[in-house]
Amino acid sequence: MAEVMKIATRDSYGDALVALADAGHDEVVVFDADLSASTKTCKFQKAYPKRFFECGIAESNMMGVAAGMSTFGYVPFVSSFAMFASGRAWEQVRNSIGYPHLNVKIGATHGGLSVGEDGASHQCCEDFALMRAIPGMVVLSPADDVEARACVKAAYNHEGPVYLRFSRLATPVFHDPEKYTFTIGKGETLTDGFDIAVISTGLMTSEVLKAALQLKKQGTLSVRVINMPCIKPLDEELVLRAAKECKKIVTVEEHSIIGGLGEAVCSLLSEKCPTPVRRIGVKDTYGHSGPAWDVLREYGLTAEAIANEIQDFAKEE
Amino acid sequence: MTKQEMLQLKMTATRVRMGVIEATHAAKSGHPGGSLSAADALTYLYFKEMQIDPENPHDPDRDRFVLSKGHAAPGLYSVLAERGFFPVEDLRTLRHDGSYLEGHPNMNTVPGVDMSTGSLGQGVSAACGMALAARQQGKDINVYTMLGDGEIEEGECWEAFMFAAHYKLDNLCIMIDVNGLQIDGPTANVMNTEPLDQKMDAFGFNTIICNGNSFNDLEQAFLLFDRAHGSGKPTCLLLHTTKGLGVSYMENAVDWHGKGPNDEEYQHAMQELQAAYDQLEKEYEQWLK
């Protein structure tokens, strides 16, 4: 079997920004807060230095500057780590970007536990919750390189604020760039099944695919794998269909089980189609330092642990 | 400035103050103190300084103003109404359910408002972004913003000040309404921000201290801002003002930061302002003769 190509979605982000500018979108401008080498906006800076604005370590001001610039018809992409973009600058995002519904895109990298060695202070597992709560905010969480590029393009084409979460860690590319299309508000069914539906996002989707393959080999469960790159607005139709056709739902995210994909799915189902749900994610706790895969394993966010939890949940009466 | 212009500005500013009282009385809330301290600077901005057209509030080439101290919305709305952006009568709907005159400025509902503000410290960042955008587009657009002297206790302001100087935004004019009072008391006691002139100088601004309630001073100050174009330095006008100016019982009274006058207080305030207006009108007529 050929080695699967692995790319970190932060790299895809940097490339996609350059691609937007290359395609003649002159109104695209990029801001960063002293992390351009890590967020990969450095690629844009190198290609289009006059449209890149370094803001220094001052995320709050950066959000406001981008808001002001957008009122002149520019489409700013603002970058930092997820922790600071969604956390430190939350109220600026809410009041200076969200409330006036300005056309600012927030490209947040280093989301989740897979930041690894930097540890808990930098492992943001609350960004979906924080950004979902802002009215009118679109929240995207691509699963691989192909999807990340498509998300950046969709964010550009969308009029209004968008939050995009990218990963530090290189992850398998499983989408076919020739065939894949992305629409805001839509998820995709990757494998069909009728016992249990697993809805996942971001870098968890490739782990879920491995878990589903493992379960398939064991021949015990028919698992439907749904990839949900758009946390908000949620693809309600897809989730409701899964709830109706499968007996149980599992959600998997590299995020707190509070306020993220899992809760979005639960909110929908409890109102429209009550269905047993198991939320797999970070269980109301902080991360800690360590190699990314070791940390993910400890928190039960690797294929094996996910497969075990799905199996246990399937057995429950 | 000619005597005629001076008298006209004073009359306009008095009408603006009346609008502030009308609005906050009708709303039974709002912020008259900081609206009245800022009334003269706002009047000068919208009647002398800025290139704007009330008939075309979205003209992409207009100058911009961001009220970073968004709670002075009654002052801004009153100036916009006087300038013809919307009917003066609408001021009485301030803060009412269903009114487009939101308690703090909303750029999507109020004609002439260039940025939604209200959460302190944020407007100045947006103004920096606008000044940068204007320069990026190669347009001769000035961007003005007004902060409160209490507002600058917010750390974001200093992030924005660094940004403005770093990017040499000499088309940006930051005004600080130094009225010396904030909700919990004198700014000097709550959180001392002085020496502001030295701080702004050190942050790389073309710093000008003036009486923010004197049109002669304001004219000179904005002339110095104009001359700073091409210098690579953003301008900071430290407007020394009197909070509540124009209504005797509101002057320098911290209580009047954030409440509306009752019926009796309203009558009292309007009588004082009307008397001031009548006096100015008399002077103006005499001058015409």
Can you describe this structure?
The complex is a heterodimer of chains A (317) and B (289). In chain A, α9 links the parallel β10 and β11. Chain A has 2 domains: 6-172, Thiamin diphosphate (ThDP)-binding fold, Pyr/PP domains (Rossmann fold); 188-315, Rossmann fold. Chain A has helices at residues 9-22, 36-39, 42-47, 59-70, 82-88, 90-98, 127-132, 145-157, 204-218, 236-245, 261-272, 292-298, 303-315; strands at residues 6-8, 28-32, 52-54, 75-81, 105-109, 138-140, 162-165, 170-172, 188-191, 196-200, 223-227, 230-232, 248-256, 277-282. In chain A, strands 3-2-4-5-7-6-12 form a 7-stranded mixed sheet, with helices on both faces. With 317 residues, chain A is α/β, with parallel strands linked by helices. Chain A is built from 13 helices and 14 strands. Chain B has one domain (3-288): 3-Layer(aba) Sandwich (Rossmann fold). Chain B contains 9 helices and 7 strands. Chain B has a 5-stranded parallel sheet, with helices on both faces. A two-stranded antiparallel sheet of chain B has the order 4-5. The two termini of chain B are 19 Å apart. The relative contact order of chain B is 0.17. Chain A binds chain B through residues 29, 53, 55-56, 58, 60-74, 91-92, 95-96, 99-101, and chain B through 60, 64, 66, 106-108, 114-116, 118-119, 121-134, 136-137, 155-156, 159-160, 162-163, 166-167.
Could you write a compact summary of the structure shown?
The complex is a heterodimer of chains A (317) and B (289). Chain A is 40% helix and 21% strand. Chain A has helices spanning 9-22, 36-39, 42-47, 59-70, 82-88, 90-98, 127-132, 145-157, 204-218, 236-245, 261-272, 292-298, 303-315; strands spanning 6-8, 28-32, 52-54, 75-81, 105-109, 138-140, 162-165, 170-172, 188-191, 196-200, 223-227, 230-232, 248-256, 277-282.
